[in-house]
Amino acid sequence: MDAIDRAAKMIANSRYAVVFTGAGVSAESRIPTFRGENGLWRRFDPEEVASIDGFMRNPKAFWTFAKELILKTKAEPNAGHYAIAELERMGIVKAVITQNIDGLHQKAGSKRVLELHGSLKFVDCLNCGRTFGWNDIIDKIETGNVACDECSSPYLKPRIVFFGESLPKDVLREAIDEAKRSDVFIVVGSSLQVYPTASIPFIAKDSGAKLIMINADPTEKDWLFDVVIYGKSGEILPKIVEKVK
Ligand code: APR
Ligand code: ZN
């Protein structure tokens, strides 16, 4: 039986499956990943564009990066996101824990999504406290002039977790609870290099879950997994859902 068959069997027989995703699940939606050959961290310095210190020094650098990360692609969910949402509709996947801030799981129909690194849905002015929706910000990014309508401060901060900030405690606690409850834990498209997020698959394993990895490339954590499938999540996940059905 090949790895996809073994994964489908584990998922079909699961009582409480949980999915954990990283940038790789959105790669086929043309959102660049962070690491790997054309990863964002090859073109941008995370310290400058994705750390809280960098943001406070120069918020413009973040917004230029954000344009590259999300805006340019006008990203739509891909077959991988839809397959995960389908498994939730089938009552198999109980939660999606994601490191991604692109909102594509929700766009594809997933209901229970725990966004460990926040999302770009809302942006707050650190100066006057005014909150903007992502749509208000989009045309500001296009013009390259991201400033508050109210007080014209440039410090419009999205509700994402910058390097140097701690994860939203309540979301992290919920994610850890889901990992502990899971009997099958499926990691899709993550290099598992960023902590504390990358410790969550270990928590699932320690709680007795079977672990499945779907990733384009090998990671340093493959040894942890019961089934490892190398390839594109947008191709592999729909195949697994067909077999589960
Ligand atoms: N299908 C499946 N996996 C893919 C695909 C694909 N189409 N394309 C790329 N991948 C894999 C890569 O092999 C890589 O291992 O996705 C993984 C993406 O890893 P990273 O770019 O490191 O992304 P991620 O693990 O989500 O990074 C975690 O780091 O920079 C911070 O906050 C940022 O949330 C991010 C965190
Ligand atoms: Zn303001």
Write the layout of secondary structure elements.
Blueprint: H1 3-12, E1 17-21, H2 40-43, H3 46-49, H4 52-57, H5 59-69, H6 79-89, E2 93-98, H7 104-107, E3 113-115, E4 118-125, E5 131-133, H8 134-143, E6 156-160, H9 169-181, E7 184-188, H10 200-206, E8 210-215, E9 227-230, H11 233-244
Parallel strand pairs: 1-2, 1-7, 2-3, 7-8, 8-9
Antiparallel strand pairs: 4-5, 4-6
Helix pairs in contact: 1-11, 6-11, 9-10
The structure holds adenosine-5-diphosphoribose and zinc ion.
For the sheet with most strands, the description reads: 6 strands, parallel
Uncertain spans: none
Estimate the strand proportion: 15-25%
| Residue-averaged pLDDT | 94
Q: From the alpha carbons, calculate the radius of gyration and give it in angstroms.
A: 18 Å
The topology string of helices and strands comes to HEHHHHHEHEEEHEHEHEEH
| Number of helical elements | 11
Pairing-aware structural class of the strands and helices?
alpha/beta
Distance between the termini: 17 Å
> Care to count the β-strands?
9
- Percent in helix: 25-40%
Strand order of the largest sheet: 3-2-1-7-8-9
Describe the structure.
It is a single chain. With 245 residues, this protein is α/β, with parallel strands linked by helices. 38% of the residues lie in helices and 18% in strands. The protein is built from eleven helices and nine strands. The strands form two sheets. Strands 3-2-1-7-8-9 form a six-stranded parallel β-sheet, sandwiched between helices. It has a three-stranded antiparallel β-sheet with strand order 5-4-6. β7, α10 and β8 form a beta-alpha-beta unit. α1 packs across α11, α6 runs parallel beside α11 and α9 runs parallel beside α10. The longest helix is centred in the C-terminal third of the chain and has 13 residues. The model has no long low-confidence stretch (mean pLDDT 94). The structure holds adenosine-5-diphosphoribose and zinc ion (ZN). Adenosine-5-diphosphoribose binds next to α11.
